[in-house]
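Standup notes, structure subgroup. Blocker cleared on the NAP input:
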Amino acid sequence: MRLQGNNVIVTGGASGIGLASVERCLQEGASLVIADLENSDGQARAARLDDQYDGRCLFKACDVTDTAQVDRLFADTVAELGSVEAVFNNAGIGGIAPSDEVTDEDFLRIIDINLSGVFRVARAALRVMYRQGSGSIVNCASILGVFGQSQTTAYTAAKGGVVNMTRTLAIEAAPKGVRVNAIGPGYIDTPLLEALDDDMLQGLIGLHPMGRLGRPEEIANAFLFLVSDEASFITGTTLMVDGGFTAGKS
Ligand code: NAP
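Run returned:
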C-alpha cells in the first residue's frame, strides 16, 4: 500500500486518465476526491468507488476555470480529510481546428481550462502544502507540450505552458518540501479521442513506435510513481509516457 493514509485530489477525475488514476490510488490505500464538473458522471462514479473502497472516495463539483470553486475544493477537502498529500492537475479538453479559423472564444476556452486551470489548482494546492511542509503535485501535460502538431494551436500552447510552468513551480516549491512534476501522455484511449474519425486515429497510432494507443491505467501508474516516496528526489520534470512517440522526434 504505497499511499496508505494519503489524501489525493484528482481534477477531471470522473473520466479517462483521471478516473483510472483515482482507482489506482484507491488500490494503494489513499482517500480520493474526484473533482469534476457538476454535470459530469463523477458523483455516480465516486459513489460506486466509495462503496467498493471502504468509504474512501468523495466527489466535489469543481470547474477549474472558476477560482472560487478551486479554492473551495481545497478548503472543503482540508476541512473534511485534514490534509492533501497529492494532487493530479488533470482536467483538460481537446480542440482541433486550422489556426486561421480558430476564434478568440475557442482559443481562450482551451487556455482557460488547460493552462490557467492548471495554475489555479496548483496555486491552491501550494497554499495547503506549504502549511503542511510537504506534498506532491502532478500536472497533466502532453506529447504536444514538447512538439507541435497541425491544427492544435491553443492545445499545444497550453500544454507547452504546463511543461515550463511545472519547472518554475518546482523551483519555488522545493525549499518548502513540495514536489511538482508533469506527465506527458502520448495518445491515450479515452473519451477525449472520441471526436477523431477512424483514419485520424490510425494515423495517430502509427506515430507511436509501440504501434498502439496508451491505456489510461498506464498514465495512472506514472502518476502513482511520481507522488510516491519512490520519486522523492524527482521534481520539475515531465515524464513522457508515450510508447516512444517523442523518442523518435528528439
Ligand atoms: P477525458 O476522458 O475527457 O477526461 C477529462 C475530464 O476533465 C472529464 O471528466 C471532463 O469533464 C473534465 N473537465 C473538462 N473541463 C473541465 C473543467 N473546466 N473543470 C473540471 N473538469 C473538467 O480526457 P482524458 O483523455 O482523460 O484527459 C485527461 C488529461 O490528459 C487532459 O489534461 C488531456 O489534455 C490530457 N491528455 C490526454 C491525451 C489523450 O490522448 N487522451 C493525451 C495527452 C494528454 P467532461 O467530460 O464533462 O467535459
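Discussed briefly. Residues 104-132 form the longest helix (29 residues).
Next: hand off to the docking folks.
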